[in-house]
Design a protein that fits this description.
CATH architecture of the largest domain: 3-Layer(aba) Sandwich
Order of helices and strands: HHEHEHEHEHEHEEEEHEHEHH
Strand content: 5-15%
Number of helices: 11
Helix content: 25-40%
């Protein structure tokens, strides 16, 4: 099998089991207790979505979805992320494929990184969000229509972003710019999945497009996303920032420069510290920073970096981030 051969080529990876279908995958995960699971989507008896969901209930284990770039598989992969998988990567072609070496390296690095993630299932209820009186970290009153909301995430981000968007009221009219670290080829499917599961207008960002009220724009593959002159989207092929293109820091820096105090930056679950530099600039320009709390993060890297830097007073549970955004905007009145 191709994937077993690729994993076997790395001395840091030991393949402890190979399942023929989803039922066997669940049983092997229960018996072998692996550090990470590489999951296909199309399997007999129990597909990858149902197998992922069952594994996350029985024994939470990092799951990497390995998918073809077929539109159906991409759609199913998004549902597997919703079921609890952490990442999705493209399935490498055969050794004769032009991208075989690159795809194999990306697969190996992703699997090894996800093996380090320690997941804990959280079933306890979270107390309702208590709206606080405005503090110095709250943005000053201004016109809501000129506001922009930026959201960025990495590991575990697709489902977190979905929950934030789904939690916003139907009449939420602030444009939203989103950066999600995701494997090449999956951005369009991610945008379609968010559109279908949140009932919000979500599309891939296009360079020079004028932002519309209430619309959500996803950074496309291999391009930084920002806001340019006259409220138009800007896509950039500038060098990756800390290894990322699109970069969360690029997005937040752009919002700081264009909107300053009229911007909100939300940083969600993800490895590393992407977004920290841009959020610092946004904070300095008077913008509001909201960081997901550790208890509801799959990986606390990106929000943790922002909180340790003092860019937000405290972490916010994922279930209450939409409320925080709406509450911040509720204090704003046209001048």
């Amino acid at each position: 099998m191709l994937l077993v051969s690729i994993y076997g080529s790395d001395p840091e990876i030991e393949v402890v089991g190979e399942a023929c279908d989803g039922v066997e995958a669940v049983a092997m995960c229960r018996a072998l207790r692996p550090d990470v699971v590489s999951m296909d989507i199309q399997m007999p008896n129990l597909d990858g979505i149902a197998a992922t969901r069952q594994i996350m209930v029985e024994r939470a284990t990092p799951i990497v979805i390995v998918s073809s770039l077929d539109s159906t598989d991409i759609r199913f992969s998004m549902h597997a992320l919703n079921a609890g998988a952490l990442m999705v990567v493209a399935k490498p072609g055969g050794p004769g494929s032009a991208t075989y070496e690159l795809d194999s390296r990306e697969l190996l690095s992703t699997v090894k990184a996800m093996a380090q993630v320690k997941l804990v299932r959280r079933w306890a209820s979270i107390p309702p969000y208590q709206q606080r009186a405005p503090t110095e970290s709250a943005i000053a009153p201004t016109d809501r229509a000129s506001m922009l909301l930026g959201i960025a995430a990495s590991t575990g981000g697709p489902n977190a972003i979905r929950k934030v968007l789904a939690g916003l009221p139907p009449d939420f009219d602030t444009p939203i710019l989103i950066v999600q670290h995701i494997a090449a080829g999956f951005s369009e499917g991610f945008a379609t999945w968010l559109h279908d599961t949140t009932s919000r207008p979500v599309t891939l960002a296009r360079h020079g497009e004028l932002v519309e009220r209430g619309a959500c724009y996803i950074a496309p593959d291999d391009r930084h996303l920002g806001i340019g002159a006259a409220g138009k989207l800007s896509l950039s092929a500038a060098a990756p920032i800390e290894g990322f293109r699109p970069s969360a820091s690029f997005l937040f820096s752009s919002l700081a420069a264009s909107n300053g105090a009229m911007a909100i930056g939300v940083i969600l679950t993800g490895m590393g510290s992407d977004g920290l530099t841009g959020l610092r600039e946004l904070k300095e320009r008077g913008g509001l920073v909201i960081a997901q709390d550790e208890a509801t993060c799959d990986v606390f890297g990106m929000p943790g970096a922002a909180l340790r830097a003092g860019l937000a007073p405290a972490g916010t549970p994922l279930e209450h981030i939409a409320d925080r955004v709406v509450a911040a905007l509720a204090h704003r009145k046209p001048p």
